[in-house]
Amino acid sequence: MPQTAGTLDSQQKTTSRRPAGTLYRGNTGMWSWVLHRITGVAIFFFLLVHILDTALVRVSPEAYNAVISQYQTPIMGLGEVALVGAIVFHAFNGLRIILIDFWNAKYQRVLFYVVIGLWVVTMLGFVPRHLINVFSH
Amino acid sequence: MTSTIEAPRSPYSRSTKKSGVNWEKWGWIYMRVSGVVLVVLIFGHLFVNLWVGEGVSALNFAFVAGKLTDPFWMVWDILMLWLALIHGGNGMRTLVNDYATSRISRGILKIAILVSVVALIVLGTLVVFTFDPCPAGAPADLVASFCKSL
């Protein structure tokens, strides 16, 4: 589509400006949305595996213990830190989405920093204790 | 070239299909309602299984047997199973709608999601309701202490 120099100039002017008037393009709104999707997919695939490994209690105590002992290794212990981190973010950001939908969208940015703050506090309460449990056994 | 831009926030509707139920709306509501319940259920699950006592190091068959013979935890786990799988399956459906570009790939992926969710709900529900904490012939050091009195 041929364009005159005038329209191209105005287009460049428009795109060079920061996006405004949208919750989801650029900045905190977009990144919280991206993280929500990535953590959601990760949690979904863990859930599939986790139901299968728990179902081994129906096979035999030996079969279940063999698999659950894999969760107690140092590498999987670090994986559990990542898993809990993903779940805690998805949980708090999900509550943020509900507040945006039913309360007031104009607080979405400050609510994102509340989510980050609550995530840090929750992980400080979990990670040291969990790592001690994993590495002292 | 002119194109019509619909009024923002007008509900999505298929003009050819006259369905009385707005399923996308109910899916949207389900994600929020189940999400709030799941925050409580999963945080409680993580607290009891990973934080209390020796956390992940204490997990074994006898630990699970203690929980799955308690009606409180049976209801807790069943609710978590159904709510989380449907929540996750519906979330994956949203991603497939967004990122799978052809009609055939969308169909295959959505059927795969549906089959996985239904199969795991059936499997998990059967495990919780048919669980035997003291299987015959199991070594005494692997099962819960209450099996001795049987």
UniProtKB/TrEMBL annotation, chain A:
Transmembrane ranges, per UniProt, are 34-52, 81-103, 110-132
- Pfam families per record: Sdh_cyt
Give the subcellular location.
Answer: Membrane
Cofactor(s) recorded for this entry are: heme
Give the UniProt entry's GO cellular component terms: membrane
What does the record give under GO molecular function? electron transfer activity; metal ion binding
Query: What name appears for this protein in its UniProt entry?
Result: Succinate dehydrogenase, cytochrome b556 subunit
Coiled coil residues, start to end: none
By sequence similarity, the record places it as follows: Belongs to the cytochrome b560 family.
Signal peptide: which range, if any? Answer: none
Q: What keywords tag this UniProt record?
A: Heme, Iron, Membrane, Metal-binding, Transmembrane, Transmembrane helix
Ranges annotated as biased composition (Polar residues): 1-14
* Disordered: annotated segments: 1-21
Q: Which GO terms describe its biological process?
A: tricarboxylic acid cycle
Keyword Cell inner membrane attached: no
Q: Which gene encodes it?
A: sdhC
Source organism (scientific name): Cryobacterium serini
Q: What NCBIfam families does the entry give? A: succ_dehyd_cytB
UniProtKB/TrEMBL annotation, chain B:
Q: Which Pfam families match?
A: Sdh_cyt
Q: List all membrane-crossing ranges.
A: 29-52, 72-90, 111-131
Could you tell me what this protein is called?
A: Succinate dehydrogenase
State the Gene Ontology terms under molecular function.
metal ion binding
Signal peptide range in chain numbering: none
KW Metal-binding (keyword) present: yes
Location (main, coarse):
membrane
Q: Give Gene Ontology CC terms.
A: membrane
